[in-house]
Write a structure and sequence with these properties.
It is built from 8 helices and no strands. The chain is mostly helical. The chain has 2 domains: 34 residues; 143 residues. It starts with 24 loop residues before the first helix and ends in a 6-residue tail after the last helix.
C-alpha cells in the first residue's frame, strides 16, 4: 500500500487581527468555517452522526458533582459526540484518576490515616489505588470495575506502545468510558469539601 504524503498549512491564525472588533461578523463566521475545514479529519461527524452519538449516551442525572468534574464531564461527552474519541477517553481517564485521589483524601478526612497506611505503596498507582479504595469499602465492586475499565481503556489508547488505530473500536471504547463514568457519577455520592 502506498504511503500518502501530507502537507499541512493553516493561514487562519494570521488572518485574525489583534483587535477582534475590527472584524465584521461575516468574516468571523468565514474564519471559523476555514478553521473547521483546516482541521477536518476522517472522524468529523455529520449532523446525523452527532444526533446518533447523542442518542447513544446513557441517561445523565448528576447531582452534587463539583464544577471542575462537571465541566470536564461535559467536555468528554462533547468530544464523544463530535467524534473526538481519543480525547474523550483521555478526559474520562483524567476524571477517574482525579476521583480516586479525591476519594482517598475524603477517606483520610473522615477516618484518619491509620487504616490507609497499610495501602501506602498502592497510592501512587491508579490500579492499586482503586484496589485500596475497594478494600477500604469506599468503592463497591461495581464502582471499582467501572473506574478500572476507564483506567485500562485510557492506558490502551494513550500509551505510545499500545495506541490503537482501529476507528470503529475506539468509538465503541469511547462510548463505554463515557457510560462507565456516567454511571459512576450517577450512583456514587461525592462529598466535596
Amino acid at each position: 500500500m502506498k504511503e500518502e504524503s501530507w502537507s499541512y498549512r493553516n493561514y487562519v491564525p494570521k488572518a485574525i487581527p489583534a483587535d477582534l472588533k475590527e472584524l465584521p461578523e461575516e468574516d468571523k463566521h468565514a474564519l471559523i468555517d476555514n478553521w473547521a475545514d483546516a482541521v477536518y479529519t476522517q472522524n468529523v461527524q455529520s449532523r446525523d452522526d452527532k444526533l446518533r452519538n447523542i442518542r447513544d449516551l446513557r441517561r445523565i442525572h448528576l447531582g452534587g458533582v463539583p464544577v471542575w468534574i462537571m465541566d470536564r464531564f461535559k467536555e468528554m461527552i462533547d468530544h464523544y459526540v463530535c467524534g473526538q474519541w481519543l480525547s474523550s477517553i483521555a478526559i474520562g481517564g483524567i476524571i477517574a484518576e482525579y476521583l480516586s485521589f479525591h476519594l482517598v483524601e475524603e477517606y483520610v478526612k473522615s477516618n484518619g490515616i491509620r487504616r490507609l497506611i497499610r495501602h501506602s505503596r498502592s497510592l501512587g498507582n491508579q490500579k492499586l489505588r482503586l484496589k485500596a479504595l475497594r478494600k477500604l469499602d469506599i468503592l463497591t465492586e461495581d464502582e471499582l470495575k467501572k473506574l478500572d475499565f476507564i483506567r485500562e481503556t485510557r492506558n490502551e489508547y494513550v500509551h505510545l506502545n499500545t495506541i490503537r488505530t482501529t476507528e470503529k473500536k475506539i468509538k465503541i471504547d469511547s462510548l463505554k468510558v463515557v457510560g462507565n463514568l456516567t454511571e459512576f457519577l450517577n450512583e456514587h455520592t461525592l462529598s466535596m469539601s
